[in-house]
Write a structure and sequence with these properties.
Layout lengths: L2 H10 L5 E3 L3 E2 L8 E10 L6 E8 L3 E10 L12 E7 L11 E6 L4 E5 L15 E11 L5 E11 L21 E9 L10 H10 L4 E4 L20 E10 L2 E6 L18 H10 L3 E5 L20 E5 L4 H12 L10 E4 L13 E6 L4 H10 L2 E4 L5 E8 L4 E3 L3 E2 L7 E8 L6 E6 L2 E7 L2 E6 L6 E7 L12 E5 L2 E3 L5
Parallel strand pairs: 1-4, 2-4, 11-12, 12-13, 16-17, 22-29
Antiparallel strand pairs: 3-10, 4-9, 5-8, 5-10, 6-7, 6-9, 11-18, 13-14, 14-15, 18-19, 19-28, 20-21, 20-23, 23-26, 24-25, 24-27, 27-28, 27-29
Length: 492
Amino acid sequence: MGRRDALRLSLVAGAATTVTLSGARFAAAEDGATVSRKLRGHLPHGAPDFVYLPVEVPEGVREIAVAYSYDKPDVPKGTPGNALDIGIFDERGTALGGRGFRGWSGGFRDSFSISAEEATPGYLAGPVRAGTWHVALGPYTVAPQGMDYEVTVTLRHGEPGSTPRSSYPPERAKGRGRAWYRGDCHLHTVHSDGRRTPREVAAAARAAGLDFITTTEHNTTSGHAAWEGLWGDDLLVLCGEEITTRNGHWLALGTDPGTFLDWRYRARDDAYPRFTRAVHRAGGLVVPAHPNCPFVGCQWKFGYEHADAVEVWNGPWTADDELALAAWDSLLVSREDWLPAMGNSDAHREGQDVGLPQTVVHADDLARGPLLAAIRAGRSYLAESSQISVELKAASAKGAHATLGETLRAEPDTEVTVDLTVRGAPEGATLHLVTDEGTMRTASGPRLTWRTTPSLATYVRAEVRHPAQEGSGLPGAMAAMTNPVWLGDGRA
């Protein structure tokens, strides 16, 4: 990095989201030749979110390969050290929206390659056309001393080859008609920072008793075409993405195959609504993920105005989920504005169970449209495994009845009977009925019945909890929970 680049970085550090530095030029070479260039630089503490290194690619290139490294100096306890993400954009540019997007691996890989015939997982195969490409560096965290990096770009010349036709999952599986279907809609494979292959994830999903899954790799769509031969009558695979901004992560669920959603913005940039609209145009749902996760860049800052649901339960139940549950419950102010809860495993590797937890959806069919409609309507509950099933219903003395996501229409003083039935609950579990006032009834055993009126309870939802740890002062971990049944007109 030259003096001009260093000055530019020092001026924009802390005040800009992106900056483009000096890059590498490659002259045309003979067929079969391999040429490499090294780009070295220093990123100061407070560097922009994204730094672009332009690469001038000549005609006749068959493959572009990139490798990188950076230093990791010691830092004081409690101070983030160096962490550098990487990706690449082709000659179509780096503008927000990702028209030139060709792949992203975050900090999971130290090298990747792209040709027309194939690409490293996380990257998109396709011709290496002449023009200015950009290696994208994302300094996720930078130590007080700054970060020294080295990027090696290698061009291999030769005939370009042909790009295979993508094979995307079908939108429908055999199913059982209108029924309960179990799904895990937050999963990672080797196409982002997961350790499992798609084949291994599909096998784990079947072993967990799931009917559908969603592929949600970080900031890339390369996984959409990676499931050929893995779906079937018993397993539907939906396309999606986990968008990992610096102000929180969100899931695009059930989008059209190949739909890419950009992640290079913060809440202050007012770009998030643009991409939520893109998700809805592509037939998908917007779901903030692990909104109370304490890690850098993970806590949700965008608000819930454009969301369709919220991931309240992420992986094995922790204090983060307890906070997310409380925040979600506070959103249940009215029937018109509420957001359904979802539970997903966010599984990355062995030891993280696919389907722990899972969202159990009452849908018209095992198909993309009906499943997404049921999730959006809140016709669902969350469970830690397929061993647990939950039924929550409300009925009035006048014969009206309702279940999850529905409203029991009744006059304010009409007596309403709420019935909770749980099958497969863990030993010692307790059942809880929760309203807008808090927990109103608790019991052990497989069933709990309670009588109330719409004037006393705006909604009723259920929780099934493991026994509390003695002396902890905390409630037991969640085994299952439901979306609400609304009473009256859904307003207090």
